[in-house]
Amino acid sequence: MITVSLPIIVVVNGVQAKRQAENIAKHLNSRIVNVQYKVFPDGENYLRIMNPEEIYDREIVVINTMYPRQNDSFIETLMLVDAIKRLNPSRIHLVILYLAYARQDKVFLQGEPVTGRIVIESLSRDINSLLVVDIHSTSLFNGLNTSTHNILVTDLLVERILNKVEKPLILAPDKGALHRARQAAEKHGLEYDYMVKHRDRITGEIYMEPKEINVNNRDIIIVDDIISTGGTIALAARNMKKLGARKIYVAATHSLLIGNALEKIKASGVERIITADTLGFKHSDPFIEYVDISDRIATVINNLVKQ
Ligand code: R5P
Fold it and tell me: How many angstroms separate the CA atoms of 47 and 56, rounded?
């Protein structure tokens, strides 16, 4: 009888993804390699893999997040991959919990760069697979020579709210976010829709309404990828309240919550934000509830290493 043993997986974490790397490593039953990080007096970054013997011929999973310190984490991730590649692993799988610059995925105004493309093309060099948690738009994966995976987690966030709402309607704040609403709604057997924006021709005020479904007297879960300034969610929630919505919850994957975003969202009538642990820190306000997504990420990695 031939016994096939699964490859040993080693996890290497970026400087600000230690917590998540430990959780994912537990699910993978794998160990974490020590990396020494430092910054030179002139501001340049340095790193060194402290147990290089762990890398040779192994399946290596590199885990990092690109918020905060977007630019530093970009170069750190490239440095990690380069260091690993020089130690002859069997394969490198790169997990980016939050991909910075992803919203600049095209030229909006003539003269702009497509920063999302610069970032993703650089990150996908020298690796075998790239896994991104809820990428803003999968169009950024187009044309890459690496196997790419968008790990959606909206269903896990929505699941956390299901006992607090009655037959909720899942709403995306725009058409671009509809795939998240669909993913969660199909998983839990719920209705979903997206919102359209209008401008009042007289007052100039922008308002939103669902494309098809009436929200009057219904519980709503607004789903999105990123909450940055909170403007999108607050506008959506205020408008759904005006249209008669009952309870409004938010399920957003990456909650940056810049400046007074949280206050804005609280004031708009939202009950609570459910979010994933994808950034280099966690907000400590009880209004924000975190969902551990490490099991889902580990499942995707496990499937990849079996191939
Ligand atoms: C936009 O397309 C994104 O999916 C988010 O809706 C947006 O980035 C949220 O930004 P903010 O919180 O600043 O409105």
Answer: 18
Strand partners, 96: 64, 132
Q: What is the pTM of this model?
A: 0.96
Distance 232 CA to ligand 1 centre (A): 6
Question: Which of 197, 247, 266, 306 is an active site residue?
Answer: 197
Contact 28, 9 (CB under 8 A): yes
pLDDT tens per residue, range 79-89: 999 999 999 99
Query: Phi and psi (nearest 5°) for 165?
Result: -135, 160
Q: Is 197 annotated in the active site?
A: yes
Could you tell me the distance, in angstroms and rounded to a whole number, from the CA of residue 289 to the centre of ligand 1? Answer: 19
> pLDDT tens, 172-190?
999 999 999 999 999 999 9
Backbone angles phi and psi of 265, in degrees to 5: -70, -40
Kind of pairing between the strands at 31-33 and 9-13 = parallel
